[in-house]
Amino acid sequence: MGIHDDDLQRVKIETDLAGVVSQYVALRKVGRRFSGLCPFHNEKTPSFSVNAEEGFFYCFGCQKSGDAITFVREIEHLDFVGAVEWLANRLGIALRYTDASDGATGKERKELGDLLEKAAEFYHQTLRSGRAAGKVRSYLRSRGFDSETVEQFRIGYAPNQWDALASHLGVATSKLEAAGLGRQGQRGGPIDFFRDRIMFPVFDTNGVVVGFGGRMLPDGQQPKYKNTPQTRLYDKSKVLYGLHMAKKHIVEADEIVVCEGYTDVIGCFRAGIPRAVATCGTALTDDHVKLMTRFAKRIVIAFDADGAGKAAADRFYEWEDRHNAEVFVAAMPEGADPGQLAEENPTVLTEVLSAAEPFLSYRINRVLDKSDLDRAEGRARAAADTGAIIAEHPNEVVRDQYLVDIAQKVRVDIEQMRRLVKKPAPARNQPTPPTTSVSDESDSEEPTPQPTVPQAEMNLLRALVHDPETVVPLALPSMFSDRVALDAYHLVTSDGWRDRIEDTSAAVSTLVGRVIVEELDADPIELVSRALDALINRRNTELRYDVNDIEQLRQHQPTVQWLAQRQEEMHSDDTRTAAVEAVVDWLRNLAESDQSDE
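The structure corresponding to this sequence follows.
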C-alpha cells in the first residue's frame, strides 16, 4: 500500500516490539523473551509471548501472532498503512508515499498533529509569560499548581481574544476546524474554539497531543469545561487524560484510578498516586474500559459512583465479565474530590483509595449505612433494597455470597433473601432479549485452529528459525510429515521470509509465529537428530506395511541396520553430529536417485 519500501523497512527495523506491546500489556522478562496477559482475549494465566529480538509475538491461548505492524493493526483497529503511520509517528520517521492519495492521508494526519502540538506550545507559553495570564498564574498557585506541575502537564492558557491562536498559527480556517482549534466567524475570518480558559492538553498513549480540555476561570460565565470536538485524531470515548504518563505506574501497581476531571488527575500525581486518569468530558465507555484493562485489571472509580453507578450498574458488570476487570469504588468524603483532597490532605486521599471496595459491595454498604437496622421495618427495607442491588449482578455465585452476608446483617432468613433476588422467567410470547454484541473483535472471532504438528517437527522448525546457520544445511523436506509444517519449512528457509509471513495461510503463519517466540530447549543438532529419529521410525513402519515379499525385505535389511546404528550414534553427544550428517547425506542421495528414476 503506498509507502516507500525503504521507509517501511526502517520502521520495522527500528521498532522495539516489546516497547510497543508494553504500552498495552504488563510484560515480564522470561529468559530471552517477554510474557504477559494476552490483550486479544480474556485470560488469567499469561499465554502471550514476545520475542523482542525477532520482533514477533504469539499467543498460546488464541493463536494471534505477527510483528509490530500486525500488533498495532489488531490493537488499534487500523489498516496496514495506518499501523505503519502509527509506528512511524512513534519513532519520529517521516514516511514517503508512492501513491498520492495515501500520501495525502498521512500528510493530513501529520499536519493535524503538528497544529495541535503548536497550539499546545502556544497556550503553554502564554500561561508562562503572557501579561494577560497573570490572574491565571495566581489562581493556579492558589490551587497548589507550582511551576513544576505546570511544566509536567503542559498546562496553558487560551487568551481572551477572538483569534489569538488563529493569528499565531496562520493556517487556513479549514485546517483549524479539522484540528478542533477554530472555526469561521460571522465576519468570514477564523476565530478560536477556546478563549479565556485554562488549557489541559490531551495526549494519546504515545504522548502525542490529540485534543484539549479547557476550564473556565472561577469568575467566568461560560460552562465550566469545554472539550475539543471529535476529529480525525480525537475521540473522547477512546481517550483517557493522563494515561501517557500514568501507564508505567499503572502496570507496576496493576491498578488504575479513574477520576472525573483533569485537576483530579493532577492532584493524584502530586499526592504520590501517579496511576490516575480521567475521561474527557464523557461517561465511561466500553472502549475506555478496554483501553484501561490493557494495562491493569483493577479499576478504581474515584468519583461520585452513586449516580453513575445506578445508571450504569449493568454496564459495569458487563465490563467486568467482558474484559476480565475488577471494578472498585473509592468512597470520597462528602463534597470532596481527589483534586481537593490532594490539595488539603493527601494522606486522606491515599487512605481512601487504599480502602476502595468492590463495586457491588460499595453499593450495598451505602444502603446499609443509611438504614435503621434496629427496627424491623428498617431491616425489611434494607433487605429489599440490597436484594434489588444484588439481583442486578449476573453471576449467581457472587449473588449468593452477598446474600448470605446480608441475611446475617439484616437478620432475615437466607431463603427469604434468595426469594427476593430470584429473577422471574421471561413471560410467554415475550421476545428473547438480544444478546449484547461485543465490540472486541478478538472476542467474537473464532481463533485460528492450532496446527497438530508432531513435536519433533515443531522442534526442528524452532531450530531453523533460531539457528539457521547450523540447521538450514541439515534440514530436508522429507523430515516433515505434516503438510502445514512442510509449508512452514519452505517459508523459513526462503529469503526475506519474515516479510512474507502474513502472505501465507493462517495455519502456517500461526505455526511460524509460535516457533518464533519459543526458545530452543536443546542443542540445535540434537533437535535435528530428533527429527531424523522420527523420520527413520516412520520409514521402518512404512517398510513393514509396504514390503510383503521376503526377498525384498532382505534387500532393505542392510539399510535398516545401517540406519539403526546411526540412530544409536545420534543418542550420544560424542557421535551425534557425525551421525546426523551421515543420515542427511544418505537422504539427499536418496532424493536425487528418486528424481533421476522419474
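Confidence is low (pLDDT under 50) at residues 424-451.
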